[in-house]
Sequence to fold (218 residues):
Amino acid sequence: MSEESVDKYRVVIVDDHAMFRSGVKADIGDAVEIVGEGEDVASAVSTILAQVPDVVLLDVHLPGGGGAQVAKLVLKELPEVRFLALSISDAAEDVIGVIRAGARGYVTKTISAPDLVDAIRRVAEGDAVFSPKLAGFVLDAFSGSIEVAAIDEDLDRLSQREREVLRLIARGYQYKEIARELFISIKTVETHVSSVLRKLQLSNRYQLTRWASDRKLV
Fold:
């Protein structure tokens, strides 16, 4: 038996899509030991606490509170567990939010299987690993270019749909374009925009665009 097969890192996969979890297991299952899975915050926390893996592959958007919530809850009990975010999202608030919660790295789902195995190894060994574009968000956050605390506290007030509307408004979309993009009515878009403005204490869409741009959310 080779040394590699003896020293496989123990990994838990957390993602709300069963087919994606199956695909990851098929792609990297020979290189690491998959010891459990989670599909939402509750099942993820329960599995991680029971299995105590070396690394958790963590999706950012999950039913029951999101990936950042999983990391916060687990690290209170098991500070030695390492989290590597694996998400389709490359939005600054997602990257910063999960890193602030304790993740050691963040890669997108476009990553190749060999690169993912390497990222798992590096995170398990104590390195911080980021996809190239995402590293810039983290550097900006630590340099003070992005107010990390302000992003988290303000965005925590918004629902996932409100965040989507916020991002599209900041990109210059008109209400009817947002409605078409999100498959909702224009009236619903207006309701979401009003709610976002109220929660962020802003007066109009121009202030909203500037707010999002200053925080590099677009």
In short: The chain has twelve helices and six strands. Residues 1-6 have pLDDT under 50 and may be disordered.
